[in-house]
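It is worth pausing here to work through a concrete case rather than discussing structure prediction in the abstract. The textbook approach is simple: state the sequence, then state the predicted structure, then interpret. We follow exactly that order.
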Amino acid sequence: MSIFIFRFFIIVLITLTGYFFPPFYLAPYFGAATGFLLSIVIVYLETRIRKSQFKVIWSSAIGTFAGVLLGWALGSIYQTIASDNSTTTFIRIFFLLIMPYIGFLVGTRKFEWLEPPHLFHFFKEKNVGRSSYMILDTSVIIDGRIADICDTAFIGGTLVIPQFILKELQFVADSADGMKRQRGRRGLDVLDHIQKSSQVSTIISEIDFPEVKDVDSKLVELAKQMDAKIITNDFNLNKVAQLQGLHVLNINELANALKPVVLPGETIKVFILKEGKEKDQGVAYLDDGTMVVVDNSRKMIGQNIDVTVTSVLQTTVGKMIFGRYNDVSR
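Step two, the predicted structure:
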């Protein structure tokens, strides 16, 4: 209630000021009307400022001030070209109006351009290639393998954690569903581990897109704006981002690429874990999770045996290895 009282007094005081001290030689009543309209504009701006982030306000103010300086400089330059006073006045007023407006738009819509790290990066020598920023999405954070990759120092550049991803993780961690709650807390623990790691640098991005509701769409927009890569293991996000010309690092594709190459005819040692679907089949798994289907091995469940690889099948979910156990006792 106090804020409404404060606004009311502001409107009354500015209106009375316009009445007793009318600007531009206006009559008192017209001065009061002018003061009233200006006070309404001020109150409206105050309500908008309350809803805005500080860095947006700061950037818009810096952009407007820079626009004023640039407009004054351009007007002064063109003043020497014009041949009559009317043209000179028009040019100066034009630049003094349009340049602050452009500066204000840049400050509100592209406020990250005016952030100190971005300005510092602008004056540095540009590297050949893409940006060193890599944005983490929710799925890859909850998955957890990104933390192990970071610990190996294979990740170069800066990991970007968007604020809207943190909000989504917190929402999942506060879920009434026990499984979702556990996944969300795991994701927060993974982020804490990554931030404490000395092998990689991280930043929290405050950039948001209120008009975009879907989190994946926000990630795509953020990657475009920062010229960054997206680290994910979400198949749909991977395809959408690639269709829009973005560079995507898929953890699942990395895991498949790192699986050992096994050729037909080679011998590998496996532990038969359970029986297979067909007669006399046993099933084993390599250390990376690759399934190995072994013929003539059902009776060897619970034992380590040497298997001769007969074929390797590449599927959409990974590799499957087929082999045969040569029972020498036969």
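Step three, interpretation. Residues 296 and 329 are 12 Å apart (CA to CA). DSSP finds twelve helices and ten strands in the chain.
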